[in-house]
Structures are given as C-alpha cells and as structure tokens.
Write a structure and sequence with these properties.
The chain is α+β, with helices and mostly antiparallel strands. It has 14 helices and 10 strands. 35% of the residues lie in helices and 11% in strands.
C-alpha cells in the first residue's frame, strides 16, 4: 500500500523512476485503476530528483487536456514520494512504431494524426499560466516516442513532465548537465542555451520524420555521433528520398519542424498542428488508430489486462483474509494501531470490559498486534467470592429483621454458652390455658432460612396472657447494645445462575 492506493503490478522501470499499476478503493464498492510513479532506489536519496518530483506534481497537475496524461495526486510514504496519474490502457509510441516496421511502417494518415494530437497536448502545456494569468513558459524538454502513450481505443497522450522547464520551478539546471534524450534535443538545448517551446517543436519534428520515413534524421553510430549530427550544419536526407509516400508539401512541413535555427522553425506546436491538418484530406479518427493497435499489439494488451485482472483478484483475496489497515501493523507511521483510539473507528466507541481488549469485543482479536493477556479463572474466582459474600450479608440482614428486639440485660450479665432461647414460664393453675403439646413446648422461637431464598419466619407459639411472667434470657453485653436500623433495604438472595 502507498497511502490509500494498493499496488497491483509493475508497468515500467526507468533510470529515475518506476511506474506501477495500482488501485484506489472507495466506499460502496468504488474502484479505480491508476498509474503510480515512484522514485527509483538509485536516486531516492538525491534531493535534486526529489525536487523534480515535486515540480512535476505542482506544474503538470494543472494541465487539463485530453492529449496529456492527467496528474491526480501526490503522496509520500515512509519518505518515498509517489505521483498518481491516470491509467492509460495502451503502449508507448516506440512500441507501436517497432511493431509496424515489419509491415511497411505506420500508415501515413495515422502518423499525421498521432503527431497532430501530440502537438495539441504540447500546446496546452506551453500555454499554461500562473494564477495571475502570467505565462510560466513551460517546456517539456523530453518529447520522444517513449513519452507518448497510445491507448487501445486510439487516444494519444503526452506524459512525463519530470524535467520540464518552467518559471518559478524549484529544480532549475544550474550547470551544463543535459536533461532528456540527446537524440531528440534541439541544438540550443544541447548547447545549454535558453530554450523555449520551439525546442519541443524540434523534438516533435524528429518524431514526425521517424513515423513517416521509418528512420531517425540525425541517427549516428552512437549517441555522441547523433549529437554531432544535430549540431552540424550538414543538411539531413530529404524525406522524399527515404519514403515515396511523402509528398512535397509534407516534406516541407517536416523540414520546417526540424530546422536547426529556432527562428526558421514553427514558432509553436499549434502552428505545426495546423500545417498537418491542412495536409490531411481525410482526418483519421481514434477508432482507426485503435483498430491498428488491436491488430499489431492486441495480444500484448490482452495479456496485460489478464495479468491486471488476476492481480485484482489476488488483491481481493488478500483483503478478505488480511486484517483491516487500522488493526494490522500500520504502513504509515501516522496510522495508530488497533489498541489506540482512532476517531471514526467503531472500536473507539465501545467500552472496554475488565480483562479484555477492544479488539476482542469487535471480533478482531486475531488481528491485534499484541493482544493483552487474559485471566478468566481469577475473574471467576473473584466473581464467586463476591456472590457468596452478598448472600451472607443478605441472610444476616433478613435475620435481623425477623428476630424481635431483646430486653436490655442488667449490667455485668454473663454471656450464655449456648444460643439463647425464649422460655415460657408455667401459668398459675387458676388462669392457665390448656397446656401445649410436648412438641409445641419443646419448639423454640426461631427463624428458618431456605437456601438461596428469602427468609420465611416460622409461626410463633401462642402468646401468653398478660398475667404470665416471662423470664428474660441472659444476654451478653455485646448484644445488650441497641442496634441501629439498617440504612438501606436488605439485598435479596437471588437464584444461582442469574
């Protein structure tokens, strides 16, 4: 994962950057495939390339044109900068040109369409202005077949503004280091002089020569020889001498685009695009270019789509089997682990029970990085002890409510050794009622408590007459003190298993 983007498969690997196919997943099943450009490990510690990344995001993201790859987002993950771009289901122009070479090269009308579309995209970049309306003088400086994408639907898009020149740019070339591909550089760019949009027109003229004639107009045995050919004043081979499909008017357009003197070139990409449109008797459509892509590179495109679909299926399986990012080991150091309280996370809205962790309550116990130790036996022991203590207190309270108040014992009375009983003295013969049965005479006035139930008092013996004398039982000094009434209602003893 890079931020909210899930990497699916690699697309391209260059000297300064790598490009990946990735996926953005949103709510309600929303999914979008994007391309992510990351810095190559070879230059990840170079502050100059980091500045180039930032400049490309800041400048190129403002270009809104159908013939320019759209910049969507800029992110940073663990000090790794990445640029999110629209995903183009297609191939670089150089791949298309090489695939068409064995069949006699690119069809002429499709070659003119491709160059005209590139010119439209470059003109939109050249016309980019600051917020106050001042032109920033954007120059791509790396126009080449490698930086032009042709989709399988026939769309043509310019990409990679990483070394573009613009006013106010952070990473300006302060030395005479060449940036770009020497085989497509204008003479003033090779000399290290000031460049403008006409340098991109020169590079696009070389692309036009290649597509219509099948060869590079300045190609030498190596890069150094190619650079010398560009800087020399020796005229290039005329296009009509290379390809019979090129007529005089098209040849004039090609030679004007690759003039070594900037003043004699097309002064803008829009001027080159207008000249090409004037040559087209029947302008080509995107569907025709898409049909050619399917014919020449259809198998390659289908294979890539299958690989991408397989990568998405595997990503879906991983998403179902792996924990959510909030509960797994965080990729970004700014993402808190599951045990922390994350705003908006449902785990932060649940109370934590004693002896348990939040992840266990929501079913994420297996995903927590370090679950807390749990002690169920100790918890049950404490719970049982509290239950027994509550039962004893409740029984004692009920007993105190059911037992009548005893009379005050004289001072210094001796405590009995056996539990006190209520003894009824015999009545005089003339006023005594019928004597009670033996069982009634032996039964003391006690309270019976059923196990785990509310205390039920036993019916007392018949009350004696007023004339009867009752001998008070001996009471200890401790029991002689008056007991205050209970401050709260007695706690009933509940059934076990509540």
């Amino acid at each position: 994962m890079l931020g909210r983007y899930e990497i699916l498969a690699p697309i391209a690997d260059g000297g300064m950057a790598r490009v990946w196919a990735a996926r953005l997943t949103g709510s309600r099943g929303f999914k979008k495939t994007v391309a992510i450009k990351t810095q190559s490990p070879l230059v990840s510690d170079d502050v100059r390339f980091e500045a180039m990344f930032l400049d490309e995001a800041r400048i190129a993201s403002r270009i809104r044109h159908g013939n320019v790859v759209t910049i969507l987002d800029l992110g940073e993950e663990r000090e790794l900068l990445y640029l999110v771009m629209e995903y183009v289901d297609g191939e670089p122009l150089q791949v298309l040109r090489r695939a068409a070479a064995p069949r006699g090269g690119m069809p002429l009308h499709l070659s003119l369409k491709i160059v005209a579309d590139i010119a439209r995209g470059l003109h939109a970049a050249h016309e980019l202005s600051a917020e106050d309306g001042t032109p920033i003088g954007l120059v791509h400086r790396d126009v080449s077949p490698q930086n032009v994408l042709v989709s399988y639907s026939g769309a043509v898009k310019v990409t990679d503004f990483g070394i573009a020149k613009a006013a106010g740019r952070v990473s300006q070339t302060t030395d005479r280091t060449l940036k770009g591909k020497p085989a497509y550089m204008a003479p003033e760019q090779l000399d290290g002089a000031q460049v403008d949009r006409r340098a991109d027109v020169f590079a696009l003229g070389i692309v036009l020569y290649q597509l219509t004639c099948g060869v590079h107009p300045f190609r030498g045995e190596n890069d150094l020889a190619t650079v010398k050919n560009i800087l020399s004043q020796r005229p290039v081979q005329r296009p009509r001498d290379v390809s019979p499909a090129v007529d005089a008017r098209l040849e004039e357009v090609i030679l004007t685009a690759i003039e070594r003197d900037p003043a004699r070139r097309f002064q803008s990409a829009a001027a080159l695009e207008q000249a090409l449109d004037a040559l087209s008797r029947r302008p080509a459509k995107d569907e025709e270019l898409g049909a050619l892509m399917e014919t020449l590179l259809g198998d390659k495109g289908r294979e890539r789509r299958q690989q991408l679909e397989q990568a998405m299926v595997e990503a879906d399986v991983r998403a179902r089997l792996s924990p959510p990012r909030s509960s797994a080991t965080p990729v970004s150091t700014n993402v808190p682990p599951l045990s922390a309280s994350v705003p908006g996370d449902r785990t932060s809205q649940l109370p934590s029970a004693p002896g348990s962790d939040i992840g266990t309550q929501v079913g994420y116990a297996s995903h927590a990085p370090e679950p807390h130790p749990r002690r169920p036996l100790a918890a049950f022991a404490v719970f049982g002890l509290a239950l027994l203590l509550g039962a004893g207190v409740g029984a004692w309270a009920l007993t105190q409510r059911s037992t009548p108040n005893a009379p005050t014992a004289p001072s210094g009375a001796r405590a009995p050794e056996a539990p006190p009983k209520v003894v009824v003295a015999p009545l005089p013969a003339e006023s005594a009622p019928a004597p009670p049965s033996d069982s009634e005479a032996r039964a003391p006035h006690v309270v019976a408590v059923a196990p785990h139930r509310a205390a039920v008092p036993v019916a007392p013996a018949p009350a004696p007459s007023p004339s009867a004398s009752v001998a008070p039982p001996p009471v200890s000094a401790e029991h002689a003190k008056p007991k205050p009434p209970p401050s709260r209602p007695p706690v009933p003893v509940m059934e076990p298993g509540f």
